[in-house]
Every structure is written in C-alpha cells, then in structure tokens.
Amino acid sequence: MCPILNVAYDWVPPFKLHHLYISDCKVGPGFWIMLQSQTELVDVILSNTFISDSIPKEWLSKISSQVKYLDLSYNNFSGRLPLELKFPNLQYINLGHNQLDGPLPLWPTTAFSLDLQSNLFSGPIPSNLDQLMPKLQFLEVSENHLNGTIPLSICNMKDMWVLSLRHNQLFGEFPQQWSLWSGISIIDVSHNNLSGNISSSMGMPSSLETFK
Known about the structure:
This is Probably inactive leucine-rich repeat receptor-like protein kinase At2g25790. Helix content is 8%, strand content 26%. It is mainly beta. The chain has a nine-stranded parallel sheet with strand order 2-4-5-7-9-11-13-15-17, with no helix packed on it.
C-alpha cells in the first residue's frame, strides 16, 4: 500500500531544503503548498506522488537560478509552463507522464536530459532547439501532440544519444544531416506522418543501434 505524507496547510517549515527525494508516496495538498515556500532547492525528485495541480511560475522562477535536477514525473500536473525562464545550472529535467499542455517548455539551459513524454504538449519543435539546449544528449517527447517538421538544426546537437519523437503528428522528411550525430544510439520517430526517403549519401551513424 502506498504510504501517505500529510502536512498541515498552515505549516511554515523552519528550514530551507536543498535536496528533496520523494517517490511512490502519496502527498497531501498541504505538502505541495509547503514545498512552494522552498526556494533554495538544488535537487527535486517528486515522482509518482499523486499531485493534481499546476506548477506555479513563481516557484519555478525562484528555484531556476540554482536547481540542477528536476523530476516531477508520474503525477497529474496540468496547465501551461512559462517559456521565458532560464535555468543556467539545470542538468536533468523529467516532467513526463503528466497532463501539461501548450508549447514545449524548452528553457535555455545546458541540460543533458529532457523527458516530457506522455503529456499534452502541442505545436512545433522549435527550430532553435540546438541553441536553447546545446548539450542535450537525451530527448524524449513521445506521446504528445507535436506537429510540424523535425527541424534541421536538431542535427547540430552533436552529443545526441537518444532521440524519441514517437506518437506525435510530425510530418515531412527526416533530416538528412543525421550523420553529424557521432554517438547516436536510438532514434524513434514511429507513429508520425513522416514521408520521403532516408538518404544514404550522408552516411549512417556507426553508433546507431535502433532506428524506427
């Protein structure tokens, strides 16, 4: 049985957390309200905690300057995320398996991993993704409502290791410059509306293990 963590609505904690790790534990609404008073967080894991709410812009803004690890996956967060924030120290982002909508929240950051799968995000993949997140190695945005084409600039992200875009509404051709990915291991673009041929003239990445 899943444990339950309840906190009084009016509790004002006499501390400022830097690290929070809670997973597979049901937290009460008072805990989520309390957490928003914690503005010095560096590592946040709040996964599968049965939260049904929005993610406040004010809280994200306050932790954005120092947070490195942000995992709010497998909850029931909804609504749109702010697009204008910057996360200079963020390395890992996992907001997957929620009910978040609107455009992809691709914040300027040096993060190596971005997981936004199984949400309600829509619109195109930004053409300047390579400038917003130049260090990205793991991109997982499957099972959303993304449309448009796969931007050519995605091939400029030479550290890319895993690219998963499956179950969206993307169309057009797959970028022909994919040989620039010297370390790519997995590409999954299945269940989209892509067309055209994969050109062999640019060469297939020797590191590629799975392509579907």
